[in-house]
Amino acid sequence: LFTSEGCSSCPPADALIAKVQKESAGQPIYILAMHVDYWDRLGWKDAFSSADYTHRQQQYARWLRLSQLYTPQAIVNGTKEFVGSEESTLRNTLKADLQKPAKTEVSLADVKVHGNKASLQYHVIGTTSNASLVLALVEKNATTKVLRGENGGRTLSHVQIVRKLENIALNNHTEGSAVTALPVGFTPEGYELIAFVQNIANGEITGATRAEFSPTLSK
Questions:
Q1: How does 168-195 read in b/e, with b if 16+ C-beta sit within 10 Å?
Q2: Within 10 A of 88 (CB to CB), how many other CB atoms are there?
Q3: What is the side-by-side strand order in the sheet with 73-76?
Q4: Which of 28, 121, 161, 215 has the most CB within a 10 Å radius?
């Protein structure tokens, strides 16, 4: 989901993915909320926003041949896009895609926290040519009291907030290691890692996984 605290149309989409997140426990559904930064100039600076996520949305626009960016925008498996608050479209798309086997398998192991960084090992089974491993550090929940802008006066709830995004070119390699920076205020219980393999030619996501941080890993 591409979203923003500065967009009055976004809270319903944020609420929808929170509902789907709760209902989909145990299923291979991996939700990422990326807060874009182009709303920040209109009265409210979204603390979770980043130009990196705007650039990623721009890349999807090129892959999907879209003429403009908008929020809230949902993209499923890199191949389908629609307004992020369209519940029936989202549910039908997820249902259809869950019936298809993943083209690649990806796993994360040996996740360790060292001060303000986390390290891990990854392993991919399947096609890795023309593909990247995308590693997302995700904050599970947060709330913000918005003081200005279109949502001024509202307290907004968020789930699955992407705080860091790393792209690793696989170049036909099936395994390797990665390090990602951790934000100020990081707690092992409040975050997770989601990794997925993406075709860099057309944006298709071919496999995904997640890894939790154990509280003991930060000691």
A1: bebeeeeeeebebebeeebebeebbbbb
A2: 7
A3: 34-35, 2-3, 73-76, 80-83
A4: 161
Q: What whole-number distance in Å separates Cα of residue 164 and Cα of residue 34?
A: 10
Q: What is the dihedral of CA 112, 36, 169, 122, to 10 degrees?
A: 30
Looking only at the bridges linking them, the beta strands covering 155-169 and 131-145 are antiparallel
pLDDT for the residue 129? 84
Give yes or no for a contact between 118 and 134, defined as CB atoms under 8 angstroms apart: no
Task: Return d(Cα 20, Cα 90) in angstroms, integer.
Answer: 9
Give the model's confidence band at 217: pLDDT under 50 very low, under 70 low, under 90 confident, else very high. very low
- Percentage with pLDDT > 70 across the chain: 98
Residue pointed to by tokens 């626009």: 61
CA–CA distances in Å: residue 98 to residues 76, 101, 112: 11, 7, 31
Select from 213, 30, 34 the least CA-distant residue to 120.
213
Can you read off the two tokens belonging to residue 155?
């307290």
